[in-house]
Amino acid sequence: MQHLEPKCRRSRATTSLILSALVLLSASLNAAGKWRMQYFYDKDASAVGFTDIQCPSAKRCIASGILHEGKRDQGVVVVTADGGANWTLEEVKEHPLSLFFLNENKGWMVTDRGIWESFETGRTWKKIKDQKELERVYFLDEKHGFAVGAPKVVLETLDGGRNCKNQTEADKAPTAADNTVYHWIAFADPKHGIIIGSWDLPPSPREVPDWMAPERARSRHQFPSVTILLQTTGGGKTWTLTSTSLEGTLTKFLYGAPGVGFALLQFPDSSQRAAELFQMDLETNKNTSVYQDPLRPARDFAVLPDGELIVAAVEKPGKANNLPIPGKLKMMRSGSLKTWLNMDVDYRAVAGRVILAAPDSNNMWVATDTGMILKLQP
Q1: DSSP 123-140
Q2: Can the peptide bond before residue 151 be classed as cis, meaning omega within 30 degrees of 0?
Q3: Which of 64, 155, 222, 270 has its CA 20 to 30 A from that of 378?
């Protein structure tokens, strides 16, 4: 026994070190903070589905959405000027689709019937352009900006959106205009930008949605969609068009470090995958998958200034990729883009669609189509 006691002591010491390491590891996993509920529209006989959120600073955030109340659908915006401590819900005259804010005060809202501008961080809005089927705007400064939409629409403005001219290169996409929509636009700097469009076969009017017959959707031959890219290196003066067939739809692109981009693809029910996030080397055109989880498909992502990525995912409630049933909200972050850390999320948070806003590494927000706004807090 005298010879065994040192080994026992060493064993106990080793166990203690392992337990200490596990405690430190647990602390490090929780060090990322918690996504806490900041706003929740929870009223009887009505619901809000947020369509976008923009946070031009740590204090000011604006979320747009549609209030559903019986047969009435009302456009709304929810605004905070104190970092989420207090929120104000304001009605707007049309249904908001997306937002873009240049700074704390100046912003634009795309609706189902045109473009509106705000000089008061979303509290008041003035319509500046009547046009249906627009999806999104992006402004380089208060005057120079772009609007994208359907059918095959890319517009440029030099006066803040009041007057626009068509970008003729967008018309050259080798797809039918009726089913071609430009839906995303981003710039790395005032010169380098990208516009993303897609074309899909129109659905048959007699077919039920894929989520109602997932086995049929999986057995059906998958017709690829066509992804269209317009790229500029001259601030939009000229654009270069390319197109390619993909199984999924490229829904979002963000620039990262110089020469690097990130792209999110969403897949139909006929695919074994639901979504996949890629890192793109813009010089060699090499694509590397960085996130793909069949049980937690990514719905949005953000690139932080230090290169870290935040992914917002929704836990699948069933076999189909696009069930209209909210799932548990899951948030992950990664600096290496190989290992993803789960972040603590308010247990009430469920969603089908999720939108992220991250003005900096210390202030991050997420809005859902279930009327929730959450903020990452220590």
Answers
A1: SS-EEEEE-SSEEEEEES
A2: yes
A3: 64
